[in-house]
Amino acid sequence: MKTKYILAAACAALASFSPAFAGGEGWTPDFAAAKKQAAAEKKDLLMDFTGSDWCGWCIKLNDEVFKHDEFKAGVKDKFVLVELDYPQDKSKLSEETQKQNEELQGKYSIQGYPTILLCDPEGKPFAKTGYQEGGPEKYVAHLDELRAKKVTRDKSFADAEKAEGPAKAKALVAALDAMELEDEMVAAFYPTVVDQIKSSDPKDETGFGKKLAAKQKFAAFEEELNGFAAKKDHEGALAFVEKSAGEFEGDQKQQIVATKAMIYAQMGKFDEAIKAIDEAKAVAPDSEMAGQFDGFKKQLEMAKEKKAKGGDKEEEDDEKEEADQ
């Protein structure tokens, strides 16, 4: 009887320690095992970076998509499902899993949740997405569209193998462009591709070198601007932004001018902020970012009106106080 109770207690302990996946059955937290399975079964990896007990959009994605049989049936022959959870309740995960997830968060430059990555069996990402409305069938169709990026990537890599010089560089650039990954992810997982582009196209006929240099310059700008933000030095930030705007062009310049509007707004200088947002829109009127400026401008105008009403009330209060005295 004693042995029976010991075994029952051990089974209960193991059951309580087993992870409960937000997306239901079919997911694994073991990244290394998932890669081996994907290689053996000739499947891709679907990696869900989630906050299962606090992230509203993660919970919504699980409830609307991942938990449904239509989703599981639609992906079972294409993906090995990997859930990388970052819950507030750390007791849900073993220390080993927590350590693995922290390392993968840094490796894949994860900035928000949910982040869904499609990767080949080696763990190299070829597409990125997140929450999509429409239910499981629509999400499966969305994933199928994203899998086409891998086909384009691999075809471009194959074309590059047969080419030399700028033609080789052009094929490699096409591979990177097809995946639409952030620069940090490209640098982490495709560094040899970047090196081959540079060496194959020393005169930069593809324009890749120029774009890369511009991105690196903008990253340096953002880092320096963050220094002003940390010190809450609005005047210094404004001067830095004014000086830097002329050093960039296109979307990057537009973003910098829009940053000026935000700084003015933080200072309560709404007339200047409105003028700056108009300047930002004029830099590239047809850009995707420009389409968001009208809404931001309305918010600035409302904030300006609210401030004006608040100022009038303060003056009335001061006058009433003087009259009472």
TrEMBL record:
Keywords assigned by UniProt, alphabetized: Signal, TPR repeat
InterPro entries cross-referenced by the UniProt entry: AGR/TXD, Thioredoxin-like_sf, Thioredoxin_domain, TPR_rpt
The Thioredoxin domain, residue ranges: 6-148
Compositional bias of kind Basic and acidic residues: 301-312
Protein's UniProt keywords contain Signal: yes
TPR repeats mapped onto the chain: 254-287
Domain of life: Bacteria
Residues annotated as signal peptide: 1-22
Chain positions covered by the region annotation Disordered: 301-325
UniProt cross-references to Pfam families, sorted A to Z: Thioredoxin_7
Residue stretches spanning the membrane: none
Regions of compositional bias (Acidic residues) in chain numbering: 313-325
Record-given protein name: Thioredoxin family protein
Species name: Luteolibacter soli
